[in-house]
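[Help] Beginner question about ligand-bound structures

Sorry if this is basic. My supervisor gave me a protein sequence and a SMILES string for zinc ion and asked me to "get the holo structure". I don't really know what that means in practice or what format the answer should be in. Inputs are pasted below exactly as I got them.
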Amino acid sequence: MTAYESKKIEPHWQAEWEKEKLFLTTEPAKGSKFYDLVMFPYPSGKIHMGHVRNYAIGDVIARYKRMQGFSVLHPIGWDAFGMPAENAAIKNQSHPAPWTEKCIEQMRIQLKRLGLSYDWSREVNTSKPDYYKWTQWMFLLMHERGLAYRKKALVNWCPKCETVLANEQVVKEDQCWRCDTKVEERALEQWFFKITDYADRLLGDLEKLSGWPEPVKIMQRNWIGKSEGVEIKFKIHPGSTGTKVKDNELVIYTTRPDTLFGVTYMVLAPEHPLVEELTKGTKHEKPVQKFREKVKHETIHEREESTGKEGVFTGAYAINPANGGEIPIWISDYVLMEYGTGAVMAVPAHDQRDFEFAKTHNLPIKVVIDPSPQSLVPSSMTEAFVDEGIMVNSGKFDGMKSSEALRKMGDEFGKWQTNYKLRDWLISRQRYWGAPVPIIYCKMCGTVPVPEKDLPVKLPQDVKFTGEGASPLTQVKNFVEAKCPKCGMPARRETDTLDTFNCSSWYYFRYCDPRNDKEPFNRELVERWMPVDQYIGGIEHAILHLLYSRFFTKVLYDAGWSNCDEPFTNLLTQGMVVKDGAKMSKSKGNVVDPDYIIEKYGADTARLFILFASPPERELEWSDAGVEGCFRFLNRVWRLIASSKAGDPGRKLHQTIKGVTEDVERFAFNTAIAKLMEFTNTLYETGATKESLESLLLLLSPFAPHLAEELWHQLGHKGSVCKEAWPKYDPALIMEEEITIPVQVNGKLRDTIVVPAGAQDDLLKEKALASERVKTFTAGKEIKKVIIIPKKLINLVVG
Ligand SMILES: [Zn+2]
Ligand SMILES: [Zn+2]
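Answer (accepted):
No worries, everyone starts somewhere. Holo just means with the ligand present. The predicted complex, written as structure tokens, is below.
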């Protein structure tokens, strides 16, 4: 018997598995499909520990489910379009395609070295025409269904390079990544998807997703941001401006009409069309112009994050529809034209941002809701009062509860409206490395979609990457010049490409039928595999990727392409891998390279450590000692198989099978591994039967597949451990010692129950309540409290 050498056995079994085509997806019998999906990587060229964690979790589930008799679809691919490849091309004066290809090759080798049981025959690459043809098809589907439209929108713009910058290219303090020039904003005509049409369903259907972590659902709910409010019109005081503003009015949206009497000023977005008109020819024109100039240099992000304390007065006044009061109109960068109406009413006494703005600019604060029985004095307030209370200073509404006034005042002064924070999805990118938007502009026919038979619109190869000027595609004459599909006249091709989130919004459909060149996927195959039974990925995708995927799925459902309207039944978001308390990053110098760990200890140790160190959804602190510990454990298993003495671990075998199975079912891989370690110790102490050794290897195989496979063969088996069934336990052999516990009702002994010694509170409570004798004393009464003294007593307090 030789020593445990991962370097020998791991490549050997990886080659065997590939030769035997062990992980090719098999056609499922009815009710036995399991779609196990990990978020596909961006091909950066190197996998990191976060990848290892994500994929190790996915792999344990795939291997476990196969052993349970499921047909498992466990695919992998590449989210290959995007900025890093294009940036590399600009830096190296090369082309993004070969760079991407090389990165994929390197990462594929790394993933294979980890022994992940993917069905590689289904690999997809979103930057290949055979894939992006169908991403373009998805755009056409959206267009056909009235869900794609064009409008002007702001982009980040570098005035020196004269180019649009992606968000990732805006660095440091809003500077261009290439030349450090301060980034500006420009309005460009761009494409949008009308995801807002689906806001209600995207919100409502979150209820169906019982297999999703609650925090993710909360983030989606907040992102969609449904609110009930009213639209209220404020007339502009005609005498208050330098020009002849007469019948103009400002429309605002508020969820707090109960505060209407407390409005002491209004704020417009600096780019609001009325601003110029209001200030023209007045002494306010200049300062307003200056402020608008300044805001132009702020990015949308800066403005959203702005605490909203900067602003200038326009000189104009609006009239409060509730009491006829005149209120000054200001502009501030925190109000954005894109959101809502570009105008807000400000109630400093009852809104924190308004409160701070009013304090800074010395604007009046008027209390209209009191936290009864106290009353508020504006001058002594240190923050806004935002809760419900009793109406004051509000005319006929005085004395009313604010919640009641909210309804009544909403009805009287405005029009009720449901609003969403969710905005339409800007899908245009002024970049090369993406799927071209399949649209042609014709002078005669207007905006014409490229017919399906002409897809894909291929990216031209002969392109210069300078990083300056407009998108590289605008420079390629034979790309831009096109024939109108309708009238055949010379026309211009769209040069924007699709946001890469488009590629990742439907890739899980493509995995069901990855080589189809007639349609994006075959409906029957999608019905066979979808929805994804288990999706695993980082929490950073909690909003955009998951929301866009749900949107695509619903559109495909509505269009009759699929029968599922939610793509992911269960979601697991794994925690970060940190070292010395910080996320692994180059700048912190705390990165552990997976290759190094594999080289030194083997893939099995790497997998085992990462699964053992922490429950999947929690943060994982890297520990060299922990890695050593896992390596030592695998060595112990290795020596045990070679040298164990005959003996019988008795019930421990069946308890271990039961415990590990239950742990794996609830993804508590760390405790499952702990039980296997404990069982190994037992086998050293008691000696082992052949059955107990075999079971140990079977239970270990999803975690450390190479070692398990090697030892399985050393025990004399010819077939792969991966094809074996998951071990079963004998319920008769897991019985624990039982104890008798008295049950009291209101302190009086009424019955006794017999339970396992280690029974949890839930079980004790359940058994006590199920007792027929106890029931006669609790019937028709409310159980107010259940007091449990472990192993001693249960007392039910009823009344
Ligand atoms: Zn620049
Ligand atoms: Zn035409």
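A couple of things worth pointing out: The mean pLDDT is 93. The longest helix spans residues 624-643. Feel free to follow up in the thread.
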